Amino acid sequence: MTTADAPRRPRGRPGNDKETVLRRAIDLFNRQGYDATSITDLASDLGLTKSAIYHHFPSKEAILAAALDEALDGLAAAVASAADATRGDRAYDRLRATIEASVAILASHLPAVTLLLRVRGNSPLEQSALERRRRIDDQLAGLVGRAVAEGDLRADVPPDVISRLVFGTVNSLVDWYHPDGPIPPERLAALVSGVLFDGLHARF
């Protein structure tokens, strides 16, 4: 076997691949705040040099972009998947399926979604992320409105209030849910959906 034929070894030190850098960066951004975290902070947290970070990402903003894309791509895919699976059904059924899919994605990508929910539009990148999030929210609010119009949700509560209550509950999961706890994402999705749509009455 010649040198040219030998298998290439992966570049970088074990445990310091691009995915590891992204995970640790998201964790640090959530703990310290994105603006308050520097590449030097991240390098120190990983035990790397700054040049090792730049080997994977050209800038701190590029890391943030990857994190926000993870959250937004996952949520958009969940909404689209639920819509496809319930095509032709009543808006209520589509809304419920979409909520369950969104909760499952939030639970599975909790750190990235947490970071997304803390974005305040302080840069063009953050503004773009907020716009993408608004489009997803608008899709879900539209389903709420149609479910009310079809008579499957309470008409005495304005659709925009229902939407805020529902998605406020979903978003609040980032404050208390732990993926390594006793409730797996799929079970969490079913529990949240059950409480939101069936209430808290005892079931016999």
CATH arch. level architecture of the largest domain:
Orthogonal Bundle
Low-confidence parts lasting 5 or more residues at pLDDT below 50? 1-15
What percent of the residues sit in helical stretches (DSSP H or I)?
55-70%
Q: What's the total helix number? A: 9
The CATH fourth-level homologous superfamily of the largest domain: Tetracycline Repressor, domain 2
Q: Termini separation (Å)?
A: 72 Å
Number of strands: 0
Share of residues in strands: under 5%
Overall mean pLDDT score? Answer: 89
The biggest sheet, with number of strands, parallel, antiparallel or mixed sense and barrel status, is:
none
- Cα radius of gyration in angstroms: 21 Å
Total number of domains: 2
Keywords: DNA-binding, Transcription, Transcription regulation
Pfam family, one: TetR_C_24
Protein name: TetR family transcriptional regulator
Domain HTH tetR-type: 15-75
